[in-house]
Specification:
7-stranded antiparallel sheet; 7 strands; 2 helices; alpha+beta; 128 residues; 47% strand
Length: 128
Amino acid sequence: MHAVNVDSQRRQDWLTRVKALADQVEEWAKAEGWPVDRQQKVIREEALGEYTVPLLRVQARGGELHLNPIGLHIIGGNGRVDIEAYPTLGRVKLIGDNGGWKLMVDNVPLRRPWAAHTFVELAQDLLS
């Protein structure tokens, strides 16, 4: 029974972090004048079951960005959310780390803080 409570708490924490991240990205995108379409994505993980998270589609200059949650149970981190760019197909991974997010490109950390200016720079770089 204890494992169920632990998994339930981890799941709730994960859902809270993903929603907060989506809210943050939506706020930053709108501050740039970029329209945001918020959708829902269903994820199924063995330990957590099936759950729904927000998926964002941001219409930025030069293309579209997707904030795409991948899952909580990953190697080397506490959850993963991808920022994917179309049409360039560029991608940056946000890996849960010490209550925040660590930016990763091809498994190499970007030594940049997760902040509004970083998001805008990444968007421009991913779409160029």
